[in-house]
Amino acid sequence: MTGQGHDARETARALLEYVGGAANVHGVAHCMTRLRLRIGDPGAVREDELRGHPAVLGVVADGGAYQIVLGPGVVDRVTAAFEELAAPDPPDAPAGGGGGGAGGVKALLRRVANVFVPLIPALIGCGIVAGITGVLANLGTVPGLTPALAAISGGFMALIAVFVGYNTAREFGGTPVLGGAVAAVVVFPGVERIEVFGERLHPGQGGVLGALGAALVAVAVERFCRGRVPAALDVLVTPAVTVVVAGLATLYGLMYAAGEVAAAVGAATDLLLSAGGAVAGFVLGGLFLPLVMLGLHQALIPVHATLIEQQGATVLLPMLAMAGAGQVGAAVAVYARLPRNPVVRGTVRSALPAGLLGVGEPLIYGVSLPLGRPFVTACVGGAFGGGFVGACAMLGDRVGATAIGPSGWALFPLLSGDGGMWATAAVYGGGLLTGYAVGFAATYWFGFTRAMLMEHDRSPSGAEAR
Description:
Blueprint: H1 3-18, E1 25-30, E2 34-39, H2 47-52, E3 58-62, E4 65-69, H3 74-86, H4 101-116, H5 120-139, H6 145-158, H7 160-171, H8 176-183, E5 195-196, E6 199-200, H9 207-226, H10 231-294, H11 301-311, H12 316-320, H13 322-337, H14 342-356, H15 361-371, H16 373-394, E7 399-401, E8 415-417, H17 421-446, H18 450-456
Antiparallel strand pairs: 1-2, 2-4, 3-4, 5-6, 7-8
Helix pairs in contact: 1-3, 4-7, 5-6, 7-8, 7-9, 8-9, 8-10, 9-10, 10-11, 10-13, 10-16, 13-14, 13-15, 13-16, 13-17, 14-15, 15-16, 16-17
């Protein structure tokens, strides 16, 4: 076993102990930076020890849902070891978070996010291939390769509804393949022969929203059948009734309704940017860090996916990505303002490369959030960066991302815009520089009170800032 593998297994073993053991773990998943757990008894979690583990950058807890921030790369190895040690058997419904009110809404948003998070690697890979395809097509080089790359990049997006349906059924307690089978109706070419409300359907109508709704209906129908169909007939009757009822509901209602919602999302986004792009960018860039802190930023994935399906790119992501730029600028200012604090400065040095590539959690949980005011000034930097990108959109230089997942410098290969490759990169780069500069200036001048400097700017020997 490699050293990294050994470290991952030891980390997983410690985390499993802190969350109450394998019997207390009812579900395991992960995104790019976080180990996401469903916990049966939150009272059994030793949260102070969990937060204090050297590999843990932060913990977001809400009822029975725990998100343990480990960082990119590390989370993949630790999750694999954790699953091996815990071997959980997910129940039909998640523990905790099922109540009404804000907690219920947050739990629902997290579950919808769990449908899309596993799709992010494919979205990134296919998005980068699509960008390469576009460059080759514009240059007119290697003409035989271009169609092949187009097929590779477009195949996943053409069938993304099936993957969404599969994951939805799995997340909400149904049979995954039945969810995928019903969602496949959305992209089946034969639907164009069906007329609904005087209009013919077209393949892909409703997109991922239609697939999500179709799979949810399939889960409801399957659960209804499971409790009423005799065991001897269940294997035949339940799947047939599920696909027929949910399929008809999809064809004669959900596809049309989801198509209208998707069209409204696209129209609202266009109006938002054309009428108030600067203000919209300012608000989105300024509020995104708190969403990341709460783990709710994943709930925007269906909106991004809908825009990518409709328009080929999501224009919201580049503005939201400016929040990370404000965070980077704030972290550099913290480094400059605390010259006698080797712990904080060491954290900044180690987390800054990830921050430049759009992974903000290490800087959030390790630097700005513990200090307080620098987190607010980082949001200010993100707001100005988002405002810059939004203002350029109002002027006709709209920038979008052909896939979701990366941000920061890592988003450059996935950019798409009306002004061509170089103009698009210049607008996005200008937004990053604005976020860096404002985040730095706001934090340097307003991120610390004198009392904060006296408290935090100390060397191990106890010398204070003057």
